[in-house]
Amino acid sequence: MAEQRSGGRILVECLINQGVTTAFGVPGESYLDVLNALHDVQNRLRMIVTRHEGGAAFMAEACGKLTGKPGICFVTRGPGATNASIGVHTAMQNSSPMILFVGQIGRHMRDREAFQEIDYRAFFGTVAKWVTEIDAVDRIPEIVARAFTVAQSGRPGPVVVALPEDMLRDLSAVEACDASVIAEAAPAANALADGLARLAKAKKPLLLVGGGGWNDQGRRDLQRFADANNLPAAVVFRGQDLIDNASAAYIGDAGVGMAGYLKDLIREADLIFAINVRLGESATEGWTLLEVPKMKPVLVHAHASQAEIGKIYQPDTAIPSGANELAAALAAAPVQGNWSDWRDKGRKGFMAMRARASQVGAVDMVAVSHWLDGRLDRDAILTNGAGNFAVWPSKFITYSGGRRLLAPQSGAMGAGVPAALAAKAVDGTRQVLCFAGDGDFQMSMAELGTAAQEGLTPIILILNNGMYGTIRAHQERNYPGRVSATRIDNPDYAAIARAYGLFGARVEKTDQFAPAFEAALAAGSAAVIEIMIDPQDITPFARLDDLKGLGKGG
């Protein structure tokens, strides 16, 4: 039997056995015993100390999305937990595996409104897959193993585990848990056969792809299926890295700011094969593109969670299955047909949309985006928060050859910078580029301190137009000439970066961008490039309606 150890030490042993090498958090007195245990394993489990719990939670969510394994976050009770809730909500909407460990008041103080006391089950109950509290030190291995299983099984998502501070000090000889084994459900043969039979009969089928839980092999298998059958494939909001954008199969993103050609294709389709998507608001234009609950096209709906199938739209064929197992089965299935003419119609619409975009002002972000598209490594990781600036990484960067996109489906401002730091923490050898708006950046600007302290080196582009641009666009449409509460008076962002010991530069003309970016790459530190945007250019799209739902603003 193992020696007597504290609850904090047993918890850390469990995390190491689960394969955790990095955690994010802000220290708190409520989990001092965990911090004490981490001291002895710094060479195996790195604790990245952030400047705000929201930043730590965003980092854990991004780590989970990038790796497919739960991102780990530690925060203290009460305000620490509530600050971290934005990352939990983002993980739920992104379907990213994540575990938030929250230091909790002592067990003997419950239900007295003790200092910083919160009922975590009530607070997180609607935004997490599972919320629990460990009451006995002997149950730490059991509950940690279950947390890892729940976070990764079915539709991935966040788990919240409260840790009473007195429980963490208790001693036990219990063995730490082993790594959780996760089995992904495969599609039933009869359901898959029925779905493929319906596909074979379709004249204008459309693949609609998204969700969490994908791995590299799953993405490759999905690509093989689409290419082999000359099928058009659209991705849902923030899912651009699921289909090779350079492939003829890719016809764009059915998300926020959906282009008119894609709306028309969705209306025209006679079969929608929804793969791992929830058929949510952005993909359906607020559930108006497709009739509820029975859409006109035949619906073949596959999802890892049975609860998502039939939740809003009634399917003609239901396929409960993990995304990767389904993709493997589809890739191995006989070729069903050739829809190349229909696919090419969608592809031409996508290419025309890119070609039509334009921007006023001294800095042309269309040109900058095209330059970046050719300059970035094929396996670069891009991140963004929320705001109208997100059109650049979402619609004008080509996700091909292993490029990844880490961005919040929840529309959370401030997510991009922490996500970029998390990506560098996971793999410091890959290029990481963050797009941020001026309002968006200020919500996580303090994490530049984390970048400096931890040696994390993303490049952050701040698009500065002096306003919460998305909200301003809505104002101009609904209340023209009555601007209110959307102006931002900005600091010198490049100077702030330099104050942290990082690279900082300002770009005021298009031709200044390339040398600034090359200098940032060579700097050896995190870098901030502030790009001055004409305030008149709210969006590269002609219609303000295309801005609907881009996020809170910024």
Structure write-up:
The chain has helices at 7-17, 32-39, 53-67, 79-94, 120-124, 140-152, 165-169, 189-201, 216-228, 260-268, 323-332, 340-356, 365-375, 391-395, 416-426, 438-442, 448-454, 469-478, 493-499, 513-522; strands at residues 5-6, 22-25, 46-49, 71-75, 98-104, 130-133, 158-164, 171-172, 205-209, 233-236, 250-254, 271-275, 298-303, 317-320, 381-384, 404-406, 432-437, 459-464, 503-507, 527-532. The chain is an alpha/beta fold and 554 residues long. The protein folds into 3 domains: 5-172, Rossmann fold; 189-351, Rossmann fold, CATH 3.40.50.1220; 357-547, Thiamin diphosphate (ThDP)-binding fold, Pyr/PP domains (Rossmann fold). Strands 3-2-4-5-7-6 form a 6-stranded parallel beta sheet, with helices on both faces. Strand 15 (381-384), helix 14 and strand 16 (404-406) form a beta-alpha-beta unit. Helix 1 runs parallel beside helix 6. The model is unreliable at 541-551 (pLDDT under 50).
Lay out the secondary structure:
Blueprint: E1 5-6, H1 7-17, E2 22-25, H2 32-39, E3 46-49, H3 53-67, E4 71-75, H4 79-94, E5 98-104, H5 120-124, E6 130-133, H6 140-152, E7 158-164, H7 165-169, E8 171-172, H8 189-201, E9 205-209, H9 216-228, E10 233-236, E11 250-254, H10 260-268, E12 271-275, E13 298-303, E14 317-320, H11 323-332, H12 340-356, H13 365-375, E15 381-384, H14 391-395, E16 404-406, H15 416-426, E17 432-437, H16 438-442, H17 448-454, E18 459-464, H18 469-478, H19 493-499, E19 503-507, H20 513-522, E20 527-532
Parallel strand pairs: 2-3, 2-4, 4-5, 5-7, 6-7, 9-10, 9-12, 10-11, 12-13, 13-14, 15-16, 15-17, 17-18, 18-20, 19-20
Antiparallel strand pairs: 1-8
Helix pairs in contact: 1-2, 1-6, 3-4, 3-15, 9-11
